[in-house]
Design a protein that fits this description.
The C terminus of chain A is likely disordered. In chain A, the strands form two sheets. Chain A has a six-stranded parallel β-sheet, with helices on both faces. In chain A, 32% of the residues lie in helices and 25% in strands. Chain A is an alpha/beta fold. The N and C termini of chain A lie far apart (36 Å). The first copy, chain A, folds into two domains: 145 residues, 3-Layer(aba) Sandwich (Alpha/beta knot); 28 residues, no CATH class. In chain A, helix 1 packs parallel to helix 2 and helix 1 packs parallel to helix 5. In chain A, strand 2, helix 2 and strand 3 form a beta-alpha-beta unit. Chains A and B meet through helix 1, strand 4, helix 4, strand 6 and helix 5 of A and helix 1, strand 4, helix 4, strand 6 and helix 5 of B.
Chain lengths: 177, 177
């Protein structure tokens, strides 16, 4: 089971970045996305809506304490940070229950200390969305099952082909042209 | 040479997503980031400031025509889209001059047609930042040179270690604790 914890969400400023983190977690097969900071029902509804249409058993949860989430996680706690050691060097350890912690601009020092590993995806400033996507891709690849989807994409070289998922009773075809 | 083209920037709404796309492009060794939509000097200054401090010869450029950028690009034009074929199947073709095109929510049909390849990073909705990061990682890895940096990070298992880069006359140590 892989979980992602995003620290310090600010609805006014971070809405899309936090949403992208959650959707990356879902697309690469994580079980859960937890966020701290300010609670944002619109964020939760947006991600739940994606799961409703595209399937899977992904959960989004607000927590008022990153400290408790990290401390109580029953597995390896991995903080992704540009200051850490290259993630490739620890890739073999990223198995079983893993919590990936991503922050924004100001991550408290205690996060570095509570984490079992502080890992970097390059030592350049870029994006928590990008860093999370790369590590999840390296750990889990791109092939994941999304049971109970209403929609599925038929990969296409030139257009958009969206079908009701097999076994779905929905005739909705969002995004098709 | 690898370039990234982001279509349809809206400064109010997309500032951080577009910035993250640009910084991912830089961190993974691309030469140039081009964006269309509404011009945003603050975005350009923000990315230029990162390059000024952290090195490299990365350029950010505004264009008023994605059509012209794609049509005139002297190399392979690759549109990243959840509707495309899995990028892994075409990974060997992503060599030499490549333009990666990323959009937002509504990408014009013509982009799909102008692109030589429409490639997906999973067929699930997630993030142009995440998709770009994964493909660039798969194509270029994480080891890149950033000449003329003022700062460099010494990878650390527990904290933040930032040093003036060798050969730099700067004594600035932004982000150190």
């Amino acid at each position: 089971m892989i979980s992602v914890l995003k620290i310090g969400h600010r609805p006014e400023r971070d809405k899309r970045i936090t949403t992208h983190c959650a959707l990356v977690a879902r697309a690469f097969g994580c079980s859960e996305f937890v966020y701290t900071g300010k609670r944002d029902p619109a964020l939760e509804e947006s991600v739940a809506g994606v799961t409703e249409r595209w399937g899977g058993e992904f959960r989004v949860r607000y927590s008022n304490s990153w400290r408790r989430e990290i401390s109580n996680f029953p597995g390896l706690r991995v903080h992704l940070t540009m200051y850490g050691v290259p993630f490739e060097s620890e890739l073999r350890r990223l198995k079983g229950n893993v919590l990936f912690v991503v922050g924004g601009e100001k991550v408290p020092r205690e996060v570095f200390e509570l984490a079992d590993l502080n890992l970097s995806v390059t030592n350049q400033p870029h994006s928590e969305v990008g860093a999370l996507a790369v590590v999840l891709y390296a750990v889990k690849g791109t092939e994941h099952e999304f049971p109970n989807a209403k929609l599925r994409i038929v990969p296409s070289p030139k257009g958009k082909v969206v079908r009701p998922a097999e076994g779905s009773r929905s005739r909705e075809a969002e995004g098709s042209r």
